[in-house]
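Progress note, project year one: complex with zinc ion.
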Amino acid sequence: MLGRLAKWMRLLGLDTLYYNQPEDLGIIHIAKREGRVILTRSKELSGFENAILICSENLNEQMEQMGSRISKSALNPFSRCPECNTPLIKVDKKEIEGEVPEYIYKVHSRFKRCPDCKRIYWRGTHYKEIKRKIDEIIS
Ligand SMILES: [Zn+2]
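Model obtained:
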């Protein structure tokens, strides 16, 4: 349910695990063990310490709710794979030739790869949008 918010938080560089079965209370143990904050839509889960109830279904509103709790210094945008949470590594442009669309290869010079799911990232339109969002939401 909070998959988009989870991706957004990973884009900010925040170590974010995502579970879509909130009825599984095992995540409370994981959160305790790893010192994590739980973001949830479940009223039941939100009663636990370190849990935040996310009420809105709107991503912007969810981001705003989170933004007030995140300090800019904790962020490291575009350092983590939004799909699988793995820290990204820089790759030499030549290494990824043929793996991204030709025009992307031409206009961008810096690329990162997820060592786990192998996705390749670059600072495209998404990047500007996220940058703007960060400035808007987190002061
Ligand atoms: Zn990945």
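The chain has a mean pLDDT of 89.
Residues 81, 83-84, 86, 114, 116-117, 119 surround zinc ion (CB under 6 Å).
No further modelling is planned for this target in the current period.
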